[in-house]
Predict the structure of Aquaporin.
Amino acid sequence: MSQLARRVAAEFAGTAFLVAAVVGSGIMASRLSPSDTGLALLENSIATGAALIALITALQPISASFNPVVTLVERFLGVLNSRTAAALIAAQFLGGLLGTVAANLMFGLDAVAISAHARTGPGLWLGEIVATAGLVLIVFGTLRTGRGERIAVAVGSYIAAAYWFTSSTSFANPAVTLARTITDTFAGIAPASAPAFVVAQLAGGTAAFILIRLMYPSVAPAALAADRKVH
């Protein structure tokens, strides 16, 4: 199997398991704590953060972005070529959709159920800008300073926290956003709300890209060595 095929498989599987964790834990939380939204969100955020730590730890030696915004920033930083970036992004979107279908079926729901959960308004869009910008800074700030071995804990911890400090509960990922439109559950988002979330996520990624170029103009030798090994 080629290196690109291995990376595509890793992004597909990783994003599928990530979305299954987000949606599945949301369903479980809403069933276990039906009258306590705060507790349900806590359960959802812990499960998501823990899943991210595990998935990044396992798949990072191959590919572990699981997020089109992160992959686009990699492309604009010159880490990936356009063909590789396009293949990884396609895998992320397809994996996310499969993850939602799997979560729905695991809990006895229809494989696809369009969400009626409207999430809209300037406050939520700003929340997505902040959430995505922070995520991208965490990813590349960790990598470009040669501390790639810490990225799993850094990203998982950030996302678990961002569930709470952002108004949008930190989707921060276009593939996850699309995937969550096909589950009418605690984690769902109405299709009409998704485009504005994606635009906000791209804006957050753009802001983070600018900050990364300003704050990390050079890459630590350890990070360069790791990058050559993976890519």
In short: The two ends are 15 Å apart (CA to CA). The chain has one domain: 3-230. Residues 132 and 172 are 5 Å apart (CA to CA). The longest helix spans residues 3-32.
